[in-house]
Amino acid sequence: xxxxxxRRFVLVTVLMAVWIFSCALGIRVHALEKPDVAAEGAALYNxxxxxxxxxxxxxxxxxxxxxTKLMTALLVLENSAQNETVCFTESATAHLESGAVxxxxxxxxxxxxxxxxxGLLLKSANEVANGLAEHVSGSVPAFAQRMNARxxxxxxTGTQFQNPNGLTDAKHLTTAHDMALIAKACFERxxxxxxxxxxxxxxxxxxxxxEGTTIVMGHKMISPGSSLYYxxxxxxxxxxxxxxxxxxxxxxxxxxxxxxAVVLKSRSTHYKDTKAMLDYGFALCRGAQQPLPDAQNSSxxxxxxxxxxxxxxxxxxxxxxxxxxxVPESAAGDVFEAQERTGNAMVQxxxxxxxxxxxxxxxxxxxEGRWRYGKANGVYACDERLVIGAFEYWFDASGLMITxxxxxxxxxxxxxxxxxxxxxxxxxxxxxxxxxxLGADGRMLTDTVTPDGSRVGADGVWTE
Length: 464
Hints:
Blueprint: H1 2-31, E1 41-46, E2 51-56, H2 69-79, E3 85-87, H3 90-93, E4 110-112, H4 113-123, H5 126-137, H6 140-153, H7 176-187, H8 190-196, E5 200-203, E6 213-216, E7 233-241, E8 245-254, E9 257-266, H9 270-286, H10 303-312, H11 335-340, E10 363-367, E11 370-374, E12 384-388, E13 391-395, E14 404-407, E15 413-416, E16 427-431, E17 434-438, E18 448-449, E19 455-456, E20 462-463
Antiparallel strand pairs: 1-2, 1-9, 3-4, 5-6, 7-8, 8-9, 10-11, 12-13, 14-15, 16-17, 18-19, 19-20
Helix pairs in contact: 2-4, 2-5, 2-7, 4-5, 5-6
């Protein structure tokens, strides 16, 4: 009788243990449910262990668009010094697709390899890719052959590159699996990671842009000022063509685990899909879900990222009123805006009033917190846009410098930085959780596709 009772106790104990373990396992399986990815092709790669931990049509071929430039950058870094000079030719700069992203380079322009790489990876400039290809291999076709040979060395089996930029070609194809392997090789390089962690960069003067060009990283998960910022991110590359849809490669690292997410043929879900995969991957590697690090912890950001975040948070919005103007010089501690400027010292004239041509000292003049600009002909800038140093400024009919959002007579919106009045151009601007894109001429884009392949509506707001 006693033995039967003992056996019953042991059996009950075992059953309870099995039940408890099953419940715990059920909770864990639910917590680590595989991500729901809408893109047609995707892969999540653990670059630390060498394992693919999520795949969706990962070996199916798709058009890569500008994520092609990862391989271009890898070959350039492996075969060039960053202080070398790239001389851009007619073949590199002409005959790009209509609407293709560029730095407006022309034949005869010269950039260092370093500047060109920033233009390639942050701006995704297509003629820059061509110029780098010619610099390394003498011609685009010869460089494409090297791209394919390097891809094969990395273990790629479904990739065929035809050009260094990713512009549409029926034979220019890759897979999510292959792009993860290429990205792994890229992010193993410290010089590549250095470029990728940058959110802003100033390209020196060129023939078409004598004041140079300030470019902003197109990948929205990299900037701490973005609502899409992903803690632990190391970098990535965006891509878009009408044939490829949205493509995206993203690399992030936490607790010594480096993950690479690849999205191909997406219809504007590329960031959502990427976050879902990365969240899943890090949770899987930890063995349990943990709270994500605070995305706004400035101690985890580089000084450059903190500066970029400050720039992105300047806006007040198209529906708001213009902010009160402040001193028209770089904001204190704002590295981005300070580096953009090229000179033009601010000149104060106590109480000076204009009384005709020649009466105004050239330079900046402040009165009661408002700023005017004296032109070389001795009159104030008035009811006009004026390039001063590295920036374009706008002055109203009374000669006062305009800041904040400003609408012209045709109804187009522009944004003049409240910190010093310089017009923002060719970049994204965040306003209260909404994103707007300001074109190369400063005009807010509406009801179109931006240069990095994102869609903005009739009100200018980015549509996810």
